[in-house]
């Protein structure tokens, strides 16, 4: 008799009589008892979050779920228009657009803050003045390297992103205002000294800081943003079914294009 390989997992497993998930009976101990946000956190960390962690995590998911007619939403609606038999394709099209300009800022900001913190030689700051000094050095280094600071600025909320103070407040209320949020808040206070202008801390960036303070893996931060946006894209499809706009978006381009001479890449542009 040949030996069969064994693939260990602490996640879902099934037998003839029952299904287990994270060491719990799915039907008796999870379904109807554990909320989806709590479960998503539990699946990623393999530890059950505290109520405070769940509240912060779900606040982040709500903050990232939907922002109207963004490129990801338009891609989902147009893909559904083209292939109404493929809901999964429409959702995938929207999720594939989650990158450095939309949704990816959550990961970029969380990673950036984390990299700064792990590079600190000695203990982390103990007060706002210390955080401001670290933030000032950080923003100055980014400026000298001609690199942007992730999470600074917003194309709509130029006077302040309404999600940002709310997430700071929720994290404070739950005693989960950690070093990533502290550094990000300090960047918000000191960056005008270096950049010569005041930019808002955007909501996607503070979401990354909050997720990092929850101890979630840096490699998965964009995954949580995509998890949130999946709910929003389902909402976009549901609204498209009731009040279609995708065909109008398509026709606005199709009926208003004009033919121009070829412009070969690398050619002489005069």
The total count of helices amounts to: 12
What do we call the CATH topology of the domain at 104-220? Cytochrome p450-Terp, domain 2
Reported for the largest beta sheet, the result is:
3 strands, antiparallel
Rg from alpha-carbon coordinates: 23 Å
Helix share bin: 55-70%
- Order of strands in the sheet with the most strands? 1-2-3
Kindly report the name of the CATH homologous superfamily of the domain at 104-220. Answer: Cytochrome P450-Terp, domain 2
Strand portion, in percent? under 5%
Distance between the termini: 76 Å
On the 0-100 scale, what is the average pLDDT? Answer: 92
Number of DSSP-assigned strands: 3
Series of secondary-structure elements, N-terminal to C-terminal: EEEHHHHHHHHHHHH
Shape: globular
Sheet/helix structural class: mainly alpha
Question: Care to describe what's here?
Answer:
This protein has 270 residues and is mainly alpha-helical. The chain has a domain at 104-220: Cytochrome P450-Terp, domain 2 (Cytochrome p450-Terp, domain 2, Orthogonal Bundle). Helix content is 57%, strand content 3%. The chain has 12 helices and 3 strands, in the order E-E-E-H-H-H-H-H-H-H-H-H-H-H-H. Strands 1-2-3 form a 3-stranded antiparallel β-sheet. Strand 1 (12-14) and strand 2 (19-21) form a beta hairpin. Helix 4 (71-82) packs antiparallel against helix 5 and helix 6 (104-118) packs across helix 10. 35% of the residues are buried.
């Amino acid at each position: 008799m040949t030996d069969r390989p064994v693939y260990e997992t602490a996640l879902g497993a099934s037998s003839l009589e029952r299904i287990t998930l994270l060491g719990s009976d799915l039907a008796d101990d999870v379904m109807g008892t554990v909320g989806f946000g709590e479960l998503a956190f539990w699946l990623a960390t393999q530890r059950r979050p505290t109520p405070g962690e769940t509240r912060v995590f779900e606040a982040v998911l709500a903050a990232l779920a939907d922002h109207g007619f963004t490129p990801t939403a338009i891609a989902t609606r147009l893909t559904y228009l083209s292939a109404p038999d493929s809901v999964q394709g429409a959702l995938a099209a929207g999720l594939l657009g989650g990158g450095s300009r939309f949704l990816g800022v959550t990961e970029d900001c969380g990673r950036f803050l984390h990299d700064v913190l792990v590079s600190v030689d000695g203990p982390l700051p103990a007060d706002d003045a210390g955080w401001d000094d670290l933030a000032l050095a950080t923003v100055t280094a980014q400026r000298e390297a001609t690199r942007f600071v992730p999470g600074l600025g917003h194309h709509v909320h130029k006077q302040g992103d309404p999600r940002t103070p709310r997430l700071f407040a929720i994290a404070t209320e739950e005693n989960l205002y950690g070093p990533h949020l502290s550094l990000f808040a300090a960047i918000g206070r000191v960056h005008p000294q270096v950049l010569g202008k005041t930019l808002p801390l955007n909501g996607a960036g503070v979401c990354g800081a909050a997720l990092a303070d929850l101890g979630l893996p840096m490699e998965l931060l964009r995954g949580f943003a995509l998890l949130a946006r999946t709910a929003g894209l389902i909402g976009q499809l549901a609204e498209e079914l009731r009040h279609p706009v995708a065909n109008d978006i398509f026709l606005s381009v199709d009926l208003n294009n004009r033919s121009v001479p070829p412009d070969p890449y690398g050619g002489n542009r005069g």
